[in-house]
Structures are given as structure tokens and as C-alpha cells.
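Interim report, section 4.2 (structural modelling).
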Amino acid sequence: AQSVTQLDSQVPVFEEAPVELRCNYSSSVSVYLFWYVQYPNQGLQLLLKYLSGSTLVKGINGFEAEFNKSQTSFHLRKPSVHISDTAEYFCAVSATGFVGGTSYGKLTFGQGTILTVHP
Amino acid sequence: DGGITQSPKYLFRKEGQNVTLSCEQNLNHDAMYWYRQDPGQGLRLIYYSQIVNDFQKGDIAEGYSVSREKKESFPLTVTSAQKNPTAFYLCASKRTPYLSGNTIYFGEGSWLTVV
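Predicted structure of the assembly:
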């Protein structure tokens, strides 16, 4: 089984400042890692995902994340935030590989981090 | 445009009533999912379906039921047995359930409130 911990429930930041949203995971098997963003009253949109290869992953809207296997972390960063980045961000994990039988490649989510960008 | 459509956006339920949330996708995805979202708890999986006419319980299936009679449709019924149904419900889909690196796509969500 996998679990995800997002270390900050709320992160306030000023516009044009850098931001880091922290995510740690726990798993007994190799995992894929995802970051989703949710704007108020909307569904979730994929920001980026790590499957394999380079541990630095670039996503949409200028976000990037770094996979650190030794620290079991997948922190999300942006060098300069905008007001429009105000949203809730979710880190998620799933076990790797082909999932057969009754398995379904379950996506396990963290509790979410609310990013608020102030002018 | 391809996507996932959930309806209604807002729904009010009286105590003891069953209500059904609609989810339709035109992405030709095999797998569909229902998640429940409560503040500070992230998303929790209610039910999922890997293929038409098949579905499985997720982590919090009690008080909910689903059907998958068509590939594009996966309605969720919140029954009177669900003790605390007030929440934001998200439907999602994935091209194939068997590759866990595939992206899951989400609908816009439905708010259910018990009055």
C-alpha cells in the first residue's frame, strides 16, 4: 500500500516570490508520482508526473518537481508565482507497472495544500 | 471537445432520499472512477470500473452504488444508508486501467448537500 503526506496544509506567498509545496510518500514498491491542481469549485488538472528518467520533471504553468528516491519526496516548485496560481494542489502516487487481475493502479492522494498568492 | 461531464453541479438531498449523480465521458476511456472530496482529507475512492458491466468497491463504498451499462457512462447513486453524504464528488476516467502511469482525467465535480 502507498501513502502520501503533504507537509503544509496552507502556504501563503506574495506574488513573484518562489514557492515550494512539499510532498513525501511511503511505499514498499516502486511508484509513479503526480501533482494535480484544483481551482475553486472545479475538478483536478494534471500539472506534471514522474514515471522514469530524469528526476526533475517540468509541467504546465511553469511548475516543476524533483523526485528524490532516497528521501521519498516529490516537492513541487515554481520560481515566481502569480495571483492566478492560487489553488489547491494535490500530490498523488500509484504503484508502477502493469496491473492485472482485479488490481486497478490505484491513485492515492495527499490531503492537499492550499496555495494563496497575495498581491 | 473531449471530456468528462458531471451533472448536476449542485444537488440538495433530503434525509432518507436516494440521489444519482451523472458522469458521462467521450474520451473513449475504459476505466472510470468516483472520488469523494472532503476539506482537509484529499480524495477518497468510492467505486471504480475497469470495463463495461464490471465495477469494484473502493475505499469508502458503503452507502453508495454504481452501474456501468455503457462505456461512456458511470452514474453514482448516494443512498439513504450513507450517513454523511454532504461532500464534493468527482468523476474521473483513464484510457486503460492496467497502466498505472496513465493520466487520470477529472470532471468538474458535483456538490451534494443534505438538507
